[in-house]
Amino acid sequence: AREARARDVTDETAVPNSVVWTQVMTKDLEAPSQSEWLTLLRQTPRVRALYSTIRDSRCTTEQFVVNSDLLVHILLEEALGLLPEVEIDIQTPCGHFNGCQIPGVEQLCAISIMRAADCMLGALRNIFPAVAVGKILIQRDEATATPQLMYTKLPSQLSHRHVLLLDPMLATGGSCIAAIKVLIEQGAAEDRIIFISVLSCNDGLNAVHAAYPRVRIVTGAVDPILNEKKYIVPGLGDFGDRYFGTE
Questions:
Q1: Mind listing the pLDDT tens digit for each residue in 46-91?
Q2: Which helix (H) or strand (E) holds 120?
Q3: Phi, psi at 80, each rounded to 5°
Q4: Using CA atoms, how far apart are residues 63 and 151, in angstroms rounded to an integer?
Q5: If both were cysteines, with which of 27, 53, 173, 227 could 208 make a disulfide (CB 3.0 to 4.6 Å apart)?
Q6: What's the gap between Cα 210 and its chain centre?
Q7: Which of 24, 7, 35, 12 is closest to 207 using CA atoms?
Q8: What digits encode the pLDDT tens for the residues 105-124?
């Protein structure tokens, strides 16, 4: 998949969420910076069909898991495509080829915001089985919707790693901001953090970018608003409950 970036927003056929996308761009943000920090999956019929399935309230747990896993894999490959490349020369069986390589597992780590992101972590380890893994547990106070840091376990040498921060839902942005704060305090470089979410909201995107403008975000869809309970609307409900069958 290739990203539909900010420069493509005038093509409403390419980005069905173009009205929402424009809101994200124009709400306290400069349009030129958009392509530097935010990547939206290209809205192909395949991607839209996967989202239609997991958004549907009639979707079974099995259907939700299968379709979510497919979307997560697409998102992860998109995020990995943002890593820096180094040109290399290789010899094929038939001749010379100018290729490239991205950072290896020793230069990467995956951090999941528990528990919903654990499914994303599994998908990434299918790609890089030996990638270093960290966990951050942040619980939201249901009364105030503010994040509460409960637990952290992070890999060593964060200052030398590109960090893939995983959480399927970006609503208010509070949990993401709290997680990024922990990572930077432990040595991670802001411009080496890529946050990956299945579904985002305008408010959360703007909040994260305002707090940490050098963090890049990869998401598959952007919804316009939050309801009074701070759930994304139209959204898909509670991702973790639906994925793990604990509704």
A1: 999 999 999 999 999 999 999 999 999 999 999 999 999 999 999 9
A2: helix 118-127
A3: -65, -30
A4: 31
A5: 173
A6: 17
A7: 24
A8: 999 999 999 888 998 999 99
